[in-house]
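Here is one such protein, fold included:

. . .
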Amino acid sequence: MADFSPDGFRSAHHSEPQSVAHRLRHLILSRQLRPGERLVQSDLAIQFGVSRTPIREALHRLASDGLVTLSPRRGATVAKFLLSDLEEIYSVRIALEGYAAYLAAQHVTAGELRKLDQLLAEMEQAFQEGDRGRLLEVNRKFDTSIYAASRQPRLCALIVKHIELADLYRRLYFSLDNLAAHTVAEHREILAALKRRDPEEAERLSRVALEKTAAGLMEYITADD
């Protein structure tokens, strides 16, 4: 069982850049490093007692997670998350993805359900192993497989567009252990509704899961403002 402690997923046997990234992630998520704050490589190297190379690699890792912004002029800064963007993107996602789940419950095939079973098992494994990146990747495959089952290509394309717009917030979500811990159970319930061919319940569960995601992210972003 993964150790979902306040400072992140299990970090045993990490390489030096992984260890530095782990420590920086904790400082960012605990707000000891504030949104918009510059991350000076030389200062961090002194603080952590390492060379600048693992600091540089760690910053690139955190940039791929959406927690750090890299700019040619300003260098690295802690990412800023805009509440207005989050609210707009998730209000659209809730409407579109709820409707797609409703349609998917009517049209999903036995083969598609087997694929969703497999993806859910992969999500559970990634969660147990504390593999954030894998959990994020399989989560997206699971969701887009549901929406493809709606048999509405234009609707599916709109959803994928808004999932991409939400990528920064999705990465933040999976970096917050108290939020990521809910995702497997929520997807298990949605899959059960699809297997029962229950459109109303599939839609409700999809909307509720996204509403909880948005609420959790809003709480994090507005904390200590």
About this structure: Confidence is low (pLDDT under 50) at residues 1-13. Residues 83-107 form the longest helix (25 residues).
